[in-house]
Amino acid sequence: MTSVKQLSSLDFTGKRVILRADLNVPLKDGEITDDGRIRASLPTIEYLREAGASILVIAHLGRPKGERKSELSLKPIAERLGKLLGREVSFSSDINQALKVTERAQPGEITCLENIRFEAAETSKDDAERLELAKRLASLGDLYVGDGFGAVHRKHASVFELASLLPHAAGFLVAKESEILENLTSNPLRPYGVVLGGAKVSDKIAVITNLLDRVEMIAIGGGMVFTFLAAKGYKIGKSLCEPEQFDVVRAILTRAEQRGVEILLPTDVKVAPEFKDINGRVVGIDGIGEEEIGLDIGPQSSLAFANAIKKCRTVFWNGPMGVFEFSDFQEGTRAVADALRQVDGLAVVGGGDSAAAIRALGFADSDFGYVSTGGGASLEYLEGKELPGLVALS
Ligand code: AMP
After folding, report:
1. What CATH homologous superfamily does 7-175 map to?
2. pTM as predicted
């Protein structure tokens, strides 16, 4: 991947800068539950402000699919941004209002535009529609800074087309994230291990397939592991399962064996009779009852995963090992996080969900080599794909 243009390549003095940030934070009942992504956007905003620019922040929240949905308004996010910056951040509820504000914006002023995905064209599959929206957005600024790492794998108007219409550079976050991913891709310290979890195996098949040629060990937990166990003939009760992936999963297991890549699967799991925040019971993987649901890896597996992780010099982790949102099903994720922070080398936590999980379990970002803000984007990078938002900033 060619490297992205740095902020230092542009002169921001007196310029109106459009900053595409990633402020897609998790919300519960309208409250922000983890503001990691907002915090990650601060260094670039501070830099642009100090460099004498006025800043229009463009970002998305959730998937409103082109409709104005009040529960997905960026207003509370803009307020939190203002609090974290200790400065006023004004809010424009649409592009026309933003045009009036940006026309007379003074150096140092910061405005946040409403959820850009309220505009259907932002995510449209039609190139012309996206370009049309990008042109309207381009009238709001002189320069473009791409710093929304969590969205760089999307070919969206504010991520891809807009960058090409204005002189552009990558913000500090995008520059740092791409550097870390590049480190993972070219010449990682060995052994190199990957830990994957989360809900759906179909989301991770491509990355597993690509990584089979690059790593020594892949540990698999979370809901996705039950498709592996079922494909190997184990009875998995009512656990998550994607039978249409059985053939792919079996092919992965065969190829891993041929290449000498260790695929570490749990030997025990914690199950419950319902998908609820109740106490579970630990069983061997051959002891899951017909009505039971596997909600975490078991203690024996946690220990084996932790030992394997600690032997690695490079580790990438994406996806919790269990339903960490339920108090009795956090231990697998906790064990993996704890092992990761003991790695003698580079340990990368990849992704919004995994990052939120470690913070919810009481870990700090500084416990790890790097905590990425973009799960989907990191995975696609490691799949070997070109990411539109990085290509546009190269
Ligand atoms: P993902 O977005 O694919 O990384 O998935 C994250 C979600 O996977 C979390 O919300 C977890 O609760 C969920 N998850 C992890 N393990 C399981 C499991 N065994 N069964 C169901 N969901 C799970």
Report:
1. Phosphoglycerate kinase, N-terminal domain (3.40.50.1260)
2. 0.89
